[in-house]
Structures are given as structure tokens and as C-alpha cells.
Amino acid sequence: MERTLILRGLLAGALGGLLAFVFARVFAEPLVQSAIDYEAGRDEAQAALDKAAGLPVETEGPEVFSRAVQGNLGIGVGMVLFGVAMGALFAVVYTVLLGRTGRIRARALATLIAGAGFLTLYLVPFLKYPANPPAVGHPGTIGARTGLYLLMVAASVLFLVAALLVGRRLAPRLGTWNATLVAGAAFVVLSAILMAVLPSLGELSGAAGSETPLPLRDPAGRIVYPGFPADTLAEFRLYSVLAQVILWTTIALVFGPLAERVLRRDAPVRAVAEA
């Protein structure tokens, strides 16, 4: 049965990744192209300033993959594979918790786990380190940003597990509702403390004070190229969150009925084995 559930999780994850890609391709990809165009224009302006100052001008080599391949096949395959990975992780957690969560129905359990996955693996880390288009951000801070984001992911998962254990221990004394509120408050407080301690994106970039490109100025202080459009950045982040909502919602809605069917089919077998 476990193997069958995990295969269902892979299927649900692949479908979720595909739907998230379709959404991102329609709404987020044009913003990525805008960011790339902005970066190209800014590089040209910087090269003109360097040339006027007598500094060497760097030239970029040819692209290994065309922009069309990157924005369609590349992103599509990447998002489907990411969905498959999340679906497998989801199914493993579901299998481990099955039978250990009281009388929660299969579909409800799937919804709770999907919500927890979205919360800990994406939303909480996103609140501290929100996503940027590929062309936005200082190259020198990529390693730090990646490490801090993964730290937020790991900490969020640990905080949720700790909150669930606290809630479970308090439930007999406080009741399920009050114990759930205490556990939720503990998760929020722990996450807020970690966010307050970790450096913000602006602190990573040193004197610039921002990961978002500021206006480019000439030696006289005149703006020769504008800063990155705030509207484009805000829209990209919104669509990034919605793509993740589509992924995890699809996993929950597809996996729940499939798991329920598997559990119903195997119930007589388990009853005979336990007799």
C-alpha cells in the first residue's frame, strides 16, 4: 500500500508542477523577460560609462541555450520535476502519518499536509527572502541568499514539528482547540524571532543597501538608467506565490481522492490480516 500511495504522490506532484508551469508561463514569464531586457539595457549603459572612463569593457559569450528554450522547455521540465519531488515528499509524510492522526479522513489529511508543505517549504521562507526575477540581485550575494533561504526552510519545518508535538502534549489538558491555538502561536513566535535575527536582503549587498538594482548614475550624479521597476518586482513575487498555491492545492485535491480509493480497497485485506 505504501508503494501505491507514493506512486499516487508522484502523479499528483507531476500534475501540480505542470499546472504551476502553465500558470507561470502565462503570467510570470513575460516579467522574467522584462527583467532580462532591463539587465541587458543596464549592462549597455554601464559599458558606455566604463568606455567613457577608459575602463575595460567586458563582453559576454554566446548562450548555451536560447532564451526560447530556457523560458519554455527548461522552466517546464524544471517545474514538473520540482512537483514530482514535492509529491514524493508529500506522499512519504502522508504514509508516515497515516493511522497516527486519529480519525482524520484521507482527504482532510492530504489537505493538512499540503497546507503544511506550502507553509513551511515556501511561504514562511518567502516572507523573509522573497523571490526575485533571475536577472535581479547582486551576483556576489547568490551564495548567501541561497544559504539563508535553505536555513529558513529547515527552521520552518523544525518549528512546525515542535509546535505539533507541543499541541499534542497540551491537548489532554487544554482541549484540542486551545492546544491548537497555543501550538500555532508557538510556530509564529519562533518564526518571527528567527526572521528578526537573520540579515535582510538589503544588508547582504553592503553599501548598496538593496538587492534590487538602483538607478545607474554617471560620475556627475545624473541618472543614466532607471532603477528596476517596482511594479514588475511586485507582480513577479505575487505570481510566484500563486504558482506555489496551484502546486500544493493540486497535490492535495488529486492525491486525496486517490489515497482514499487505495485505503478503501485495502481495508478488507487489512481487516482479515488483523483478525
TrEMBL record:
Coiled coil: none
Membrane spanning stretches: 73-97, 109-127, 147-167, 179-198, 236-255
UniProt KW keywords: Membrane, Transmembrane, Transmembrane helix
Pfam family, one: CbtA
UniProt name for this protein: Cobalt transporter subunit CbtA
Organism: Amycolatopsis jiangsuensis
Upper taxonomic lineage: Bacteria, Bacillati, Actinomycetota, Actinomycetes, Pseudonocardiales
